[in-house]
Structure formats: C-alpha cells, structure tokens
Amino acid sequence: MTGVLFTAGGLALCGLPPFGSGLGKALAEEATGHTAGWLPARYVLVPAVTGGTVLRAALRVFAGAGPRPRDGEDEGPETTGREEPETAGRLWRIPLPMTAVPAVLLAAPLAVGVIPAVASAVGRAGALFADGTGYRRAVLDGRATAAPELAPPHWSAAGILLGPLSTALAVALAALAVRRRPARTGTAALLAPVRRLQSGHIGDYVAWMVAGTALLAALTVPGVR
Questions:
Q1: Could you tell me the pLDDT band of residue 183, with boundaries at 50, 70 and 90?
Q2: Which end of the chain is more exposed for a tag (fewer CB within 10 A), N or C?
Q3: How confident is the model over 97-111, as pLDDT tens digits?
C-alpha cells in the first residue's frame, strides 16, 4: 500500500488526469498558451522531470529495480541535509497514520479533478484569494466584496492529451535513470555545484519555489517586469 500511494503521488506530480494537479496543469497550459507559445512545452517537460524523479525512487525503493552498486561503489553524491530517524527502531509494519495521511492527501486532488462542484469551489476560492482589488476595498474601505466572476475550471482536450504525454515522458526518464550506473567521479564532480544548490532542507524547497514563481511571473504577467 505504501508503494502504491508513493507511485500515485508521482503520477499526480506528472499532471496525469483525473488528478486535480492535472486539471491545474491543463488550465495553466490553456492560459499561458495565449501569452507565450513556449510555456505549454514547459508545462509538459517540468512535470515529466519532477514526476520522473519520484517514479525513479519508487522503482528503486519498492520494486528493487536497477543495478545493485558494486562493492565500494557510491550510488551518487549525498546532499548536505541530515534527517533524524523518525522511529526508535526498525518497524515491521507501517503505522496506520503514516498510510492514512497520504491517502487523504491524494484523495483530495482526485476529488478536485473528478467532481465538478469541488473544482468550482476551489476555483472560486482561488479567484477570491488572488483578487487584489477586493483586498484593497476590504482593508481601506471596510467593505467585503464577492469573488470575481470566472468560468468554472474544466478539462480541455489539450490538457487531457498533454497530461498523459508528461506522464509517459516521466516513466521513460525514470526507467532510463534506474538502468543507469552511478556517475563516474569526473561527472559527479561537475554536478556537485548544482547539487549543493539543493541541500535537502525544507528551506531550499521554499526558496527555489518562490524564485521560480517570481521568474515565471516576470516572463508571463504584464506589469511584473
């Protein structure tokens, strides 16, 4: 069950329908396609690389796929992040909360992608959250405003096709990565500076997400530049 949930999370990251992440990906592709023609390709490649990384881990951890390291062979550079053990000793059975939590977290985006009423409610909440004019009126004038009108989130034909395309690319990348031997010393030395930019600490994830969002906004949103 743990392996199934882990793999399902990787597929959701790829934007595979009917997960809500796939619906959001489809909406972003449709919206950004009118702004910059190259952005839909970005929404195909980036989820493929991200999801492929998770699927590779699933193949290695839960299926035991890939070559075993030879004696004295390193499987790759380690990050500088250090995580403390979550349990005092080895567990022979996964506790129920550790399975129930990811199951609920996967069921929520599945409901967004499958149940139109849930998608519409999330869409209204997102529109209200992003309504700058409504914020100003509420703070400066003390008047609450309704959420701006918007079309309910919906699946597009392009989104339904591009989601599986990202997933197929992710599966192919994961399969290639699993079959590949660890990088040689020279290659590992070249990649080390890039790996140091992501130490594994949660702060690095937040910092790079904010930096990427700001860069994407600067490239696509009028007035941000």
A1: low
A2: C
A3: 889 999 999 999 999
